[in-house]
Write a structure and sequence with these properties.
Layout lengths: L6 H9 L7 E5 L2 E6 L2 H24 L6 H12 L2
Antiparallel strand pairs: 1-2
Length: about 80
């Protein structure tokens, strides 16, 4: 079970130059906010992009694609008055 940090612990971590751990703030028992270092965020974001591109490559190889003309036509039909 995660330890919920006290307000003083959060202040101490934020005043430290290096945030070494991810801090999850909860409200009413539910995850509400996350504090992490820029480096941790970059690594998480890059991993997400790698996963998205890997899935896209698989879809292309499996011919699970829709021609752009159809996509744009459907978008125009949906959003143009």
């Amino acid at each position: 079970m995660e330890k919920e940090p006290t307000l003083q612990e959060v202040k101490d971590i934020l005043t430290n130059e290096n945030i070494e751990e991810v801090i999850v703030l909860k409200r009413e028992g539910k995850n509400d906010a996350v504090i992490m270092s820029g480096e941790q965020y970059r690594e998480l974001f890059e991993k997400h992009l790698e996963d998205v591109f890997e899935k896209a490559e698989e879809q292309i190889q499996n011919r699970e694609v829709i021609p752009a003309e159809i996509v744009f036509r459907e978008l125009e039909e949906k959003y143009e008055p």
